[in-house]
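Protein: Beta-propeller domain-containing protein
Species: Microtetraspora fusca
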Amino acid sequence: MRTSIRTAGAVVLAGLLAAACSGSRAASAPEAADLSGKIRLVSYTNCDDMLAGLRGAAEKNVTQWGFGEAVMFMARDAKAMDTMAEGKQAAVPEQAHSTTNVQEAGVDEPDLVKTDGKRVIVVDQGVLRVIDAATRKVTGTLRLVPKEESWFPADLLVSGDRALVLVQSGGIIPFGAMAKVRPGSNGPKYMLVDLSGPPKLLGTLSASGSHIDARQVGSTVRIVVRSQPEIEFPPPKPDASPQDMLAANREAVRTAPIEAWLPRFEVTSEGRSRTGQVGCDQVSHPEEFTGTSMLTVFTVDLAGTLDAVPPISVAADGDTVYGTGDSLYVTSNPRWWFRPMPIDDAPPTPVEEPSASDVAPQVEPSTSPAEEVTVTPEPQVTPEEGGASPAPTPVPEQVRPSATPSGAPEEITPAPTPTDPPEQTEVHRFDITGTGAPRYVSSGVVPGRLLNQYSLSEHAGHLRVATTSNAQVFGGPAEKSSSGVYVLNSDTLAQVGAVTGLGKGERIYSVRFIGDVGYVVTFRQVDPLYTLDLRDPAAPKVTGELKISGYSAYLHPASDGRLLGIGQEASAQGRVLGTQISLFDVADPANPRLLSRFHQRNSGSEAEWDPHAFLYWPQSGLAMLPLQNYNADWRDGSSALVLKVTDGAITRAGTIRHPGFKGRDDVPTPDPSIRRCVVIGDTVWTVSGLGVKVSDAATLADRGWIPFT
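Structure follows.
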């Protein structure tokens, strides 16, 4: 869910929260479900009408524990999603430079580093820094939050000499003897900063709720915030039964005022503050909704002020945002009880030294835990036939190996659910052309659940949506799980066509749509890479399938007819073995082939769950990503792996290393992990919590170190 906690110490807690939120059994959703009907968004006629509708819906969905705040308050701060893709490679007259790896060209996404080729702008530990690319010196520093809140997750968006810093309230101190939760008393803050001289704070927009995501087109930013009703539930009596607690909470809902639901915000500028609430006339709702949350879309023009455009709200849940130049899509599943929030950083699958029988068939065991293996594999590896195969090591949903594994998370038993809700995802589309408030267009529904924003793609008047149905969140995939791609008319969001039955007994691990072709990776013990022909929206079809060991968690287009996959190698039993980067030949959609694979044992990369951390620079064929060795101590420093990608092979070009940090175990310290790689001219810039290293792009030799003091 971006804009998220992406630190090694945070991942274990994030995984526990995900387990707590998702322990209930997923209900079946028939793949032949009638999806021809639309889900209308309806505006309220007045506040009385709105209050009656919200009270009635919330009363049906409240539990004896309220709205799940005890579980969800930290999960909101662990939000993110996932995710990812080829950024539009821009250039300035002085020198070429990379940009944030985004899903759609021309639609920017928040990230912790931005560059225009002349300067590098970084937000870390509550501080914004501006670095001059020519002199390689910090030219401006601005502390945005107090030091005690410096671990709150933050990202940026930039337009010209204006930056918008998106700071989430709450967070987890990632290092030291124990990770500590720092809940925020307020919601997220969005800070407008002037970069024309020394960085200067121009104003702050504070919102009630939790940050979901944001998208920028031109200088206009759309921010999506999710809020829950502010209802004070009575403390349970010592001898109260669950039925008594539920009755008391329902009574609290029935008497709550309209102000409990209306999202609040505050704008501070030039020493003056203004508070406001979304008006009842600016709130819409689907025909069915839970009344337990509200989605609010704020519009900010970075060239103007923070509050020039009034916000709008929808009475719906939501966790995934996808944007194009003209449309903003927000997805929700209002019937999913305690549905888990997307999490960028997640706890590691336990990494054990594999036995000989665990090693994947086409990868020879390395002689050192950190040794890399470059492989030109056979085209296919098929699972064993005949007899029962060994039970796979469970790979939880939204779980990727982390920088500092701490063992398997304990499963938390969630609060009981009153019903077993169907798996389906509602999709709401808003028109965001122009700089004014978004305009609602239409809504639709598909079976199953999304993986992340890359499960959505708009092309040639249609929206493609990839989902998995019946997949258990923890404990491995359900035997009846399968995935599908649904094609919707982008104007009405009514279904046009569908292809289902992908990866039976598995779930989706990555999705990529490129023009009229779709790529879907599912995994349990092997990784089927499916290629889909989407030229006929009414009859999408699978044209090819490639089975290999391991899985790709992120897919990135390379040169024509080539696709890069970043994920984990795995044994025949499904046990993950370390980071792998694969090069696929997809020139013939009917015959996808694995050309080359680079595998490094006992390692993981942030790029697996946050592709903003991945950089592919086609001008030189270099691919870069942070890499963490599970057997190394984080105090010893961090590294970024640099690979050379040709038309037919992946080879290691070298490694860029950052220094470690010799701090005390009981004192929070900056994260020494390399987080991002940036290309400016003939140099590579790698960014960690300790500073920025500048390296020669051709030789990777050090050219300078810029410490964050």
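Remarks: The chain has a mean pLDDT of 79.
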